[in-house]
Amino acid sequence: MGESNMKIKNKQLSELTKNDLKKIKLIVFDVDGVLVPRGTKIKQKGNKITFEVKKIPKNQINQIKKLHDLGFKININSGRGLYMLQEMFREVLPFVSLTYENGSATWFKGKIYQHVNSFNELKDVFFKLKSVKNKNILGFEPKEFIITIHCKRRIKKIEKILSKEKKLYSIWNSEAYDIGVKKIQTKAVGLRAFMKILNLRKENVLAFGDNYNDRELLGSVGIAFTSDKSRINGDFFISLNDKVLPASQFMSHILTLNNKNNRNTQKKEHLIKRLNKK
């Protein structure tokens, strides 16, 4: 389902049925705005960088484990770096894979699969961007394969530098610039590479995103979920909620569907036993 021909549905979560999920083997989650609230607290002064590491809620830890027990593979697909993701998801690392820095590489069962080599394209522009001085620049988030600059607002000098870099993309997401190599460095590229490792097809994958850098990702899967349809559309929509995060709502619904199915199966088995006794 490419982005160009994606049908804009944005159906409610309650409309997702057990039958919709019959081919799904891999569930892919973005992080910010899906599993944890949006926003990164970061401060850089000289060579010293401090930032807050968010942790997923305890209920999500239990939900991920239960989905794993049901046979679903879980992939975290984020623009964040590996170290940050490992700290955020430490309690569930045995049950998930981590595709990081907009599809650049995947951590899976302790092994790293690198999908992209962006060193030559980014090595010079990095120093150009570091030379920009502006009070609205909060800091450069530590990354291996992409460049992420956190800012209070858009910076004209940064955008002027990047406008001359024809091989690079720059995505402003209201709190930071994500800078990478066009076409080869996206979440979708990383997902497709990981799907080959798992020997999965498009119809076997459900993905969940909320931001501009998730557009191609959601266009590359069988079922697409969005939690911010002002930025990106999907087959299904879950609204942003300060009390219950979109991923929590989604996982709760999947587990409820499975429990209903189990109860129906048990009722049928009980009825068959009663008929056999007669």
Structure description:
With 278 residues, the chain is an alpha/beta fold. The chain has one domain (3-265): Rossmann fold. 31% of the residues lie in helices and 23% in strands. The chain contains seven helices and 15 strands. The chain has a nine-stranded mixed beta sheet, sandwiched between helices. It is globular.
Short account of what is shown:
The protein has helices spanning 58-69, 82-88, 119-130, 156-163, 187-198, 215-218, 246-277, and strands at 11-12, 26-29, 42-45, 48-51, 73-77, 96-100, 105-108, 111-114, 137-141, 147-151, 168-172, 176-181, 205-209, 223-226, 236-237.
Features:
alpha/beta, disordered N terminus, 278 residues, single chain, globular, Rossmann fold
Low-confidence stretches: 1-6, 263-273
Number of domains: 1
Number of helical regions: 7
Distance between the termini: 52 Å
Per CATH, the superfamily is HAD superfamily/HAD-like
CATH topology: Rossmann fold
Q: What strand line-up does the widest sheet have?
A: 1-15-14-13-2-5-6-7-8
Number of strands: 15
CATH structural class? Alpha Beta
Strand proportion, as a percent range, falls in 15-25%
- Oligomeric state of shown chains: single chain
Shape summary? globular
Average pLDDT, all residues = 87
Helix-residue proportion? 25-40%
- The helix/strand series, from N terminus to C terminus, equals EEEEHEHEEEHEEHEEHEHEEH
Largest pleated sheet: 9 strands, mixed
Briefly note the structural class of the backbone: alpha/beta
